[in-house]
Amino acid sequence: MNESHESMYVIPARFRKMENMHIIFWLLKDVSWCMIWKPLGIAMIIPTLLIAIIIAWRTRDIRSELAHNLAIVFWITANAYWMISEFLHFDTMRVWGQFEGKHLALIPFVIGIGILANYYLLQKPAEEREAQVATL
Questions:
Q1: Rounded CA gap, 85 and 92, in Å?
Q2: Would you say 107 and 78 are in contact if contact means Cβ atoms under 8 Å apart?
Q3: Rounded to whole angstroms, how far apart are CA atoms 108 and 78?
Q4: 49-62 as b/e: b if 16+ CB within 10 A
Q5: Which residues lie below 8 Å from residue 104, measured CB to CB, with a gap of 6+?
Q6: Where do the H-state alpha helices sit in 10-122?
Q7: pLDDT in tens, 31-56
Q8: pTM
Q9: What are residue 96's phi and psi, to 5 degrees?
Q10: Which of 72, 71, 92 has its CA nearest to residue 82?
């Protein structure tokens, strides 16, 4: 495709600053998890998840961005739950059959994968077909 005909995705500076802060909060959360700094790790869940939700909301009109940003929301949710399960020592407790407390993190992980699978297997091909029809 000719570069002059490609659509551009432009992020306003104030949104980009928020995305950069999101990365800082996410790293602080994960470093806290690694270092077993429980209060800081748990406290970082709130801004990390909140900013991820705001980013997803702001990109709700762009299907591809929304799908990826929702997957990130569910990834952070799973990651935060897993961290809490380790901090509060219920990660190895049996909850059902062979499943332990930490395995409940699979629920939001699978939801995120499902959102991306839906996008790549259904939405994106439909968008590409619509774009092909529009150019005929």
A1: 8
A2: yes
A3: 5
A4: bebbbbbbebbeee
A5: 81, 85, 95
A6: 13-35, 38-58, 63-87, 106-118
A7: 999 999 999 999 999 999 999 999 99
A8: 0.88
A9: -170, 120
A10: 92
